[in-house]
Every structure is written in structure tokens, then in C-alpha cells.
Amino acid sequence: VSTQSTGLLSYSIKDQMADSADQGGSRGFGRGGGRRGRGRGRGRRGDRGPRGGKTEESSVWHPVTKLGRLVKNSKIRTLEDIYLHSLPIKEAEIIDSFVQLKDEVMKIMPVQKQTRAGQRTRFKAFVVVGDNDGHIGLGVKCSKEVATAIRGAIIDAKLSVVPIRRGYWGNKIGKPHTVPCKVNGKCGSVRIRCVPAPRGTGLVAAPVPKKILTYAGIDDCYTNTRGKTKTMGNFAKATFFAIAKTYTYLTPDLWDKFKLTKAPFQDHTDFLADTDDYDNKKQKDEED
Questions:
Q1: Which of 1, 209, 258, 273 is the most buried (most CB within 10 A)?
Q2: Residue 20 DSSP class
Q3: Is the model more confident about 229 or about 59?
Q4: To which H or E segment does residue 42 belong?
Q5: pLDDT averaged over every residue in the chain
Q6: Cα distances (angstroms) measured from residue 107 to each of 126, 169, 225, 249
Q7: How far apart are CA 284 and CA 277, in angstroms?
Q8: What is the distance between the alpha carbons of residues 42 and 45, in angstroms, rounded to a whole number?
Q9: CB distance 229 to 191 below 8 Å
Q10: Using an 8 Å Cβ cutoff, are 125 and 153 in contact?
Q11: What is the pLDDT of residues 56-75, one digit of tens each?
């Protein structure tokens, strides 16, 4: 037995136990050792292609929803048209078609689940995306691997992108720079309040809400927090919920009457019907 390291020592001992099990002895450490082994081996991979099954063709976006087909064919020009008619966004590529988002990982934390075999550890990722110009999204994803959790959190954050309304403190001079009114948000025990601030004040906030407000394009803001702000996930969610409320308040400058327009699905009914038939025919041809 080699004694160069404890790893080699334990490995050689396991080999000996497995050999004895194959000869009809004890089962040892092997999974399929002895006479009662189930023979559950991995086998050969064969010509399965790259891991994950992704190819170059998968990088091309093939929309699967009506909204995605309209966006890819330039029937919808702005993201605000989607928000105006409250259309659900189910594909992250729709957001990428309109705005250039920056993403940042806020936190990666391990979470555990108790099972009969012991503890199962997974990783939970919090990601914030924004364009520093009135759009912000927050995503959370849990997965066995860190990289998979981050990718899923980025997609979740893009799907949850919401418009942020900005306003003034005092006279309406220059571009909007702060929140239009006092807004509150809560998650768990965390409570946060965002208050308009004069131009040049900056973001008077903790590091977590400061980063989220920066990605939302807010330059000046006072904040007040209560609760267990050490729980970063709840702190980030509370801040996101607070600034997402900025468009829920109907202030007098939004009282103007606007002409009602048709929803995109109603306005492009013929196009959706033609592309749907084309997709169905193409799918049938591929199956044949």
C-alpha cells in the first residue's frame, strides 16, 4: 500500500475491499459489490456531444410566445408599450431587445435541506440588473452549482424588470434625479422608506439599497430602515418593492387624458395568425 498521502492510502484500501467483495466476500464500500449488487454503473458517454446539449444553433433566439414573435419582428418598438398594456413577459430575450442591462451578483449563500441520507446543500444567488436609466430588476435562484444559480438569477431578474419613476425635490429644473414621493417597502422583518432629497445630496443609504438605487438611475435619496437588515435577501427585496411602487401613485401630472389604443395582440392579429401557421408547418415538416 502506498503511503505518500492519506488520500492514496484510503483509495488503495477501498480497492482491496472492492476486490474481496467481487470474490464473494463482504460488500465493502462499493455501490454494486457482492452478490446483491444492482450493477448501476454510469457506462460510456458515447457520442452525446458537449455537456449540456447546447450547440451554436441554440444561441439563436426562437420566440415561443406571441409577445416574443412581435418583438423579434419589430412590431413592438419600445418596452413602455408592453408596460402600457400590462403584457406578461415570459422570455428574457424580450428585455435584451430593448435595453442594455448591467448585472451584478449581490450575494451567494448556501442553503441546506435535511434528508434521510443527510444534508443536501444548494446555493442561492441574488442578482440585480438595471440600465441606470429607470429600469431595475431583482432575481433569485437556487441550484446545486453556483454558476447555474447565477445564470438562473440573471434570467429571473430580467423577467422581473419594472420601470422606475423619477421626480424632483423642489423646482422642476433639469432632469429628474430623485424619487417622486415617499415610498415604502417591506419583506420579512425589513422595512425601508425612501424620501426625496435635494439635488447633490447623493444616496444616503446602506450599501445594499445604494447599489439598487444606483442601477435604477436615482441620484439623490434619503432612506430609513427598520428590522433585520443583516438579512441581505430581504433587504434587497424590500428596496426593490419600494421603488417599484413609484408608478402606482397617480399624481396630478398624470391626470391628462390619453387616447386609448389597441393592444398589440389585437393590432397584429393577422401577423400572429400567419406566423403561427408557419411555425406549425415547419414543426410538422421537421417531425416528418
A1: 209
A2: H
A3: 229
A4: none
A5: 83
A6: 5, 33, 20, 31
A7: 11
A8: 8
A9: no
A10: yes
A11: 556 788 899 999 999 999 99
The CA–CA distances, whole Å, from 196 to 27, 28, 81, 166, 245 equal: 71, 69, 28, 10, 14
- Please give the pLDDT value at position 32: 47
CA distances from 72 to 91, 228, 265 (A): 11, 44, 14
- Residue 47 CA to residue 49 CA, distance in Å, equals 6
143-170 pLDDT tens trace: 999 999 999 999 999 999 999 999 999 9
What span, in angstroms and rounded, lies between the C-alpha atoms of 66 and 269?
Answer: 10
pLDDT at 38 over 80: no
The C-alpha cell 435635494 sits at 198
Strand order in the sheet with 118-130: 102-115, 118-130, 135-143, 162-163
